[in-house]
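Render this sequence as a predicted structure.
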Amino acid sequence: MSHLKALKLTQAVPVRASADPVQRARDKMISALAEQKQMAEAKISDQPFAPTHVVRRKNAEGQRVEIETLKRIRQGWFSDGSGKVFFAVRYAGKSIDLARDKNAIEVGELSALPAVLNTLIDAVRAGELDTQLLAAAAERGQLLRKAS
């Protein structure tokens, strides 16, 4: 008896994930904000924060190998001269305006930053920053095309 006769054979084609640029920008922004939240929580609790990611490099023999290295993440918050904490949302290599000529959120104290980041993540999921994200990505694309 054939082993293939015991299986249910059919014709099928895999479905490709949609390449929706808006959803891609949202997902990228949400993951960046989640990393900022983890970094802020580690800073508040005086714990080290050392995220890693996998990179592919050539070894001495010329073969490509995967190496886990530390991921460089730019801190999104800063404080002014009086010690008040602000958070600036960065996307596509630059700070984006959340409203007309408003590029930062006044947080107050560092301990309030994770709640502010949760609110930002909810705003991104709801699509409130779609126009700013797409404009920043388009501008970044123009800059990259001019450089090459």
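Summary. The chain has three helices and seven strands. The chain has a mean pLDDT of 87.
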